[in-house]
Amino acid sequence: MYIGPFYFDTKEIFLVLTALFLGLAMYFGWSLWWFDKRSLLTLVILILFTKGLLPSIHNEAFFILAIVAIFLTLYLPIFQAILFYFLSFLLFRIFKVI
Fold this sequence. Notes:
mainly alpha; two-stranded antiparallel ribbon; flat
C-alpha cells in the first residue's frame, strides 16, 4: 500500500498497529500480562525500523528472530534483549540467513 512516497507491506502495517496499540496501552494504563509495555514498544519500533530499511529480508528467519527477542524481554533487561536482537541480526546478515 502506498501512502505518499512510502510503501507499506502488510507486515509493516501490522508492526505500526502494534506500536500504536502499545502506545495506547501505555497512555491509558492498560495491563499486559507478564510483559513490560515500554520494552515491547522499544523492541517493536526497532523491528519496524530494521524491517523498513531492508525490505529484501527473508520473512521466516526474521520472524523467528523477532519472536525470540520479544520473549527474551520476559527474562532479560531491555538492553540485553536489544543487544541480542542486533547481534543476531548482524550475524544473520553476515551468514546470509536473512
